[in-house]
């Protein structure tokens, strides 16, 4: 067994019982754990690096998540989950984590809606800093079968521990059913539609009228949404944005852009200036 130091976070906030489910799975595997989760709910935060910053310092609050095993170090952070993962990669919460577990999210993260998920965003942000991770969600907003999520997480973690890091993260969705009713864990691709759709109604100069409803689409038997609604837990590999090495975009000279070409004798080597970015253990200083 490989021993790891694991950061556990989420986007539902430090008071969510889903944190303890991930912690128990990590402890079952013999790992050490640090819990650092948003002090308040940050659902839909995606990979946002927003936080409550005062004089360059991110606020922390004492935390006692429900159901948390004894002697697990926990802290609430007034920041989005992706910022927590970002700070952890620089040692803000002690030892840099070897892996990030995010969730268990209240509600599934399937299809294109994963783009907006703070649960997934935390793990993708960690991966962009060289840290592997697993995001875990359960279908219900008030789960009755946390034990199923615990068993699936522990199983996935056992197989993820020795996987060579390649910037891909694992997105797990678990139906809220008793363990004996779970059909198994199956690989799945993202469904071709998101979890919700918006309807824009008549507003005024100060408001936009928006209503949301569940989005439906054609049945896709190999998709995460379809399999999840048919009793399977699903596993999907995701990756942060990457460039296309086979791009077909063209290069255009300044005159094609309506720009007067500069003096060819100007120094070609001088790069455009960039804003400074300084990071220490608990602070993000951004000059914009």
From TrEMBL:
Keywords annotated in UniProt = Cytoplasm, Hydrolase, Metal-binding, Nucleotide-binding
Broad EC category: hydrolase
For this protein, the record's PANTHER family field holds:
5'-NUCLEOTIDASE SURE (PTHR30457), 5'_3'-NUCLEOTIDASE SURE (PTHR30457:SF12)
Query: Which residue intervals define the domain Survival protein SurE-like phosphatase/nucleotidase in the entry?
Result: 6-190
Family, per the entry? Answer: Belongs to the SurE nucleotidase family.
Q: Which reaction does it catalyse?
A: a ribonucleoside 5'-phosphate + H2O = a ribonucleoside + phosphate
Pfam name, any one: SurE
Protein name stated in the entry: 5'-nucleotidase
Q: Which InterPro entries match?
A: SurE (IPR030048), SurE-like_Pase/nucleotidase (IPR002828), SurE-like_sf (IPR036523)
Recorded source organism is Kocuria marina subsp. indica
Q: What is its EC number?
A: 3.1.3.5
Q: According to the lineage, what is the superkingdom? A: Bacteria
On whether Cell cycle is a keyword of this UniProt record, the answer is no
GO molecular function, one example?
metal ion binding
